[in-house]
Amino acid sequence: MNFFRHRPFGLPALAALMIAAAGCSSADDAPSAAVPRPGGAVATLCDRLDRVLPTKVDKLGRRDPEPASALTAGWGGDPAIILRCGVERPAKMADAEADGVEVNGVGWLLEQESDKSFRFTTTLRKAYVEVTIPAGRTADGMAPLVSLAPSIKKAIPEGIAD
Known about the structure:
The chain is of the alpha+beta class. Helix content is 23%, strand content 22%. The protein contains 3 helices and 8 strands. Helix 2 (40-52) packs across helix 3 (143-155). The protein is globular, with a radius of gyration of 19 Å.
């Protein structure tokens, strides 16, 4: 997507633009995640989840992605484990052949992405919570889900999300 009209920049303007872009954020190396936009009760549940999430997941310290939001959380560095609360119901949940796992009382839909990362989305909860475990961390197996299960059970009641 191109946000700029094509105009030739003079060298001073280009230098100023590059300096401004380089200094825009002190969190340039922070992970990033698209922020879901749930409404009503789901947003309230996600806010509750954010308040009870662990400071460590699979021995990795919490390091939230940009932009900052109570709907997203992260642990570790490059690559980070990312949690997003209030995501839409994945289409794959309608597939009777979809892979699922249960970890410490929380059901998850399991999807392997083309980049070899794994995306897990809670099932049978009042809000969908998605956890992405990047390819560089998949050797940890489902350990991150073990760390997150108590918080999810505490904050997101069982049931069907609207």
